[in-house]
Amino acid sequence: MRGVFVTGTDTNCGKTEISLALMAAWQTRGARVLGMKPVACGCDPSPQGPRNADALRLLAQGSAAAPYDLVNPYAFSPPIAPHIAAARAGVEITLDPIVGAYRALSAGCDLLVVEGVGGWRVPLSSTLSVNDIPTALDLPVILVVGLKLGCLNHALLTAESIRAQGRPLAGWIANGIDPELQAGDENIATLAALLDAPCLGVIPWLERPVPEALAGFLHFEFLERPDGANDAAWPWIPASWRKGRTHSVGTGQ
Ligand SMILES: Nc1ncnc2c1ncn2[C@@H]1O[C@H](COP(=O)(O)OP(=O)(O)OP(=O)(O)O)[C@@H](O)[C@H]1O
Ligand SMILES: [Mg+2]
Known about the structure:
Helix content: 25-40%
Bound molecules: adenosine-5'-triphosphate, magnesium ion
CATH superfamily: P-loop containing nucleotide triphosphate hydrolases
CATH architecture: 3-Layer(aba) Sandwich
Mean pLDDT: 89
């Protein structure tokens, strides 16, 4: 199974925008990529059932058509914590449908980008949390750090927890979600010094955060350092997909 699990420092830190950008970046490098949002809350009603905006965007960015129910096996209407939404719907979130959907989607692509829900330790039931999903799928983790006051603490705690669980932290991406952010460069330098994982991109706040624009700020060359130090975390990414930038950096902003 080839894929990556995208977690973040918080809800609204930019997981979806970065997941779409990762998909676009790898698609440009020749990979057939699909996206997945295993658990989603805040879904809109539709004749086919609840539909989540993140899942629909991941579906639309995919290199091939995929059934909605595989992209988003658990969809809940209220915009509340997943285990509470599930309990209200009389549903218990379990790993089997998620693993089954992941396997089915894997058959039709080279890589799967799986977006978490909320942050890393969000409960999904009385016995299950978001961080159990990448373990069940055996996926390395990419951490999106939404740059704002408080993100250093969230980022360090999240990285610590990922490592304590034995998951490979493949890298982190700084995402400029706050156009008014102060001391951004110093925060990024602090993250680089304290997060023992490669930085795969520093994305500024963009007026139009479309995947292709964000993808231009992603880079994967640190995943192929000459000493091969990170290869263990990325045994499944062919070298050709790690090379080069998606397009020249800069969007005029
Ligand atoms: N680099 C950026 N520049 C400008 N706006 C951004 C950037 N990254 C994210 N945003 C905006 O911030 C908001 C939150 O981003 P996003 O939906 O990707 O977060 P999320 O972590 O996926 O949230 P959720 O927890 O709901 O899944 C969105 O409106 C998105 O367009
Ligand atoms: Mg999202």
